[in-house]
Amino acid sequence: MELHTLVGLIGVFCYLLAYALVQMRKLSIDSNSYACLNIAGCLGGLYSLSHDFNLASVISQSMWLIFTLIGMHTSYRRRGVMKNKLPPLDTRK
């Protein structure tokens, strides 16, 4: 088996693992682990496609990567807002 095929298969495994863990409620879609598995899947797929090019798949993988990065950024911002949120007035000292 060639290296690019193996890397592509590992990428597919990462996608499927992320999806399975979310479906089994072992992982949240807001978690860093979910995003990292999706990024690993994208990069593995893109590496594989760099050797066996397919334009439709490259576009799909690239957009998946972009959407994942946007989702990560949104989650970080949301967590920052939640962490810096002030408590209600009656509980302040």
UniProtKB/TrEMBL annotation:
<dbReference type="Pfam" id="PF26604">
    <property type="entry name" value="CBU_0592"/>
</dbReference>
<feature type="transmembrane region" description="Helical">
    <location>
        <begin position="6"/>
        <end position="22"/>
    </location>
</feature>
<keyword id="KW-1133">Transmembrane helix</keyword>
<dbReference type="InterPro" id="IPR058058">
    <property type="entry name" value="CBU_0592-like"/>
</dbReference>
<feature type="transmembrane region" description="Helical">
    <location>
        <begin position="56"/>
        <end position="76"/>
    </location>
</feature>
<keyword id="KW-0472">Membrane</keyword>
<keyword id="KW-0812">Transmembrane</keyword>
<protein>
    <recommendedName>
        <fullName>CBU-0592-like domain-containing protein</fullName>
    </recommendedName>
</protein>
<feature type="domain" description="CBU-0592-like">
    <location>
        <begin position="5"/>
        <end position="79"/>
    </location>
</feature>
